[in-house]
Amino acid sequence: MRPSRDKCLYGGRGSGKSHFFAESVVANAANNIGFRVLCIREVQKSLKESAKRLIEDKIQTMGYGSMFNIKHDEIETPGGGVITFTGMNSQNSESIKSYENYNIAWVEEANVFSKKSIELLRPTIRAKGSELWWSWNPDSSDDPVDKFFRGLTLPDDAIIKRINFDDNKYFPDELKSEMEQDRKNNPDRFAHIWLGDYAPQAVGAIWNMANIHSNRIHNIPTIGRIVVSVDPAVSNTENSDEHGIVVGGLGEDGKGYVLDDVSLKGSPQQWAERAVAVFDKWDADSIVVERNQGGDMVRHTLKTIRPNINIIDVVATRGKHVRAEPISALYAMNQISHVGSFPELESQMCRMTASGYDGSGSPDRVDALVWMFTKLFPSMINRPVKRTSNRQPSSWMS
What residues have CB less than 8 Å from 393, skipping those under 6 apart? Predict the structure, then answer.
């Protein structure tokens, strides 16, 4: 690519975006003494979620193994340089300054990078000739990165290219088979997954991504009460739904905050262990559990892990979409913010309509979220809420 401040590659699965940037990271670091690279994403809970393994593989396959020192949490490059991996959620306006002399910042999964993160990162990377690389599969035209690089006014000298699987001459047969399965069995999301089109939002959805993005924040505010909410799946098989496990809190400002989503598939023992672990991580006050399907067994499973843990039982007496509407109203009134990005949860939210869930399986992450805020906002949730949707600009979701 020609010299430029911003290099952007967006498109669907199998396009080779990450492979291209990983190879470029290695080649630049191998041929420039003391080269520094920051690989960053909005949320990085562990190194497994970063590009570290991919870059390690590229170092070997490109024949540069003897030139790099691969350590647990970073990679040392020739001449005292470094490749660093971090999440923007662990940074603030002061700590991000430590990266100002880096040559490259590669933003992975930039579709969930917040507006504040963009505003913090861009002026930080300021070494002479430094660049920002961006790779993503678009979710919505309201994604901050899409507004910045595909909006009405583009940054000067930015290189912005859309690439898909048909641009990748190394596109593997295994992915081709998977792609054809999605073309047949998942046609409503095929264009988003494989062609880089915006993700479809259910018609009449009671949440929308624009509202979630506009209220997304970067730093955790002062929280007065924190709860873990669990919506266990009915069964434990390969085709079972997930166990929804979401963490949220009520801030001292009276607003709600989504802090974590650690939902998983697995046995009752596994979801209970994870729920207790995240309870400890966030020093939570209680665990909210939907017990319609499991009855006393749900409580017993948690008590087996932690006998004295504080459990609040909730019982469903209305349909999922009816329970969800008061919570979506809180979002519309800008009373709830996501601290960081939770793509799987947010995708489920945008498939929830006034008539039910417009998606496959059960929206267990959304169910956990709804139970959580039902307990954190009891006085408001008990008010009757008029059903509506966000389809027209004049609606309460606009």
Answer: none
